Amino acid sequence: VSPFDPSFLTRGALAAKEHLSSFAMDTQVQNKFSTGNTDHTLLMGIDYRRTRNDVWQALGLASSLNLVNPVYGNTAVQYFGYRSQVDRLEQTGLYLQDQAEWNHWLLTLCGRYDWSEADSVNRLNNNSASKQDDNEFTWRGGLNYLFDNG
């Protein structure tokens, strides 16, 4: 609703064409074994993801709509903002987890290393490109007590 005249509805316009492709996988192996009186569940894996998004957009304003006396089908659109770019993301992660159970205690330790690469090409600005590469090691741990009643 227009702040100047509440009987008019202000409208916007968006035209878009987009093509998104994505591939993802997560592969893991698990092994159960014992060391003395401690039972272990060891989990190792790799996950990979690749995404590409090719997008074109036009943003604009459409003519206002009179809420008291609406007239449909005569919408004038004025575009003023455009976007045309390709975004790409590639990420790989390796992880290892050990879950050790001893005398009602459960210890979980996990480590993960990730690499990622993202880039964007702006076709409206002389194909200017931006790129970012990241990598990081993360970990987590936990200690739980398993009661007899569950």
Give, in spatial order, the strands making up the sheet with the most strands. 1-2-3-4-5
Distance, first to last CA: 57 Å
Q: Structural class per helix/strand content?
A: mainly beta
Low-confidence sequence ranges: none
**Radius of gyration based on Cα positions:** 27 Å
Tally of separate helices: 0
- % residues in beta strands: over 45%
Element-by-element helix/strand order: EEEEE
Share of helix, binned: under 10%
* Biggest sheet features: 5 strands, antiparallel
Q: Mean of the pLDDT scores? A: 94
- Report the principal-axis shape: elongated
Count of strand segments: 5
Pfam families: TonB_dep_Rec_b-barrel
Membrane topology: Multi-pass membrane protein
Protein name: TonB-dependent siderophore receptor
Keywords: Cell outer membrane, Ion transport, Iron, Iron transport, Membrane, Receptor, Signal, TonB box, Transmembrane, Transmembrane beta strand, Transport
Question: Topology, please?
Answer:
Blueprint: E1 8-35, E2 38-66, E3 77-102, E4 105-122, E5 128-145
Antiparallel strand pairs: 1-2, 2-3, 3-4, 4-5
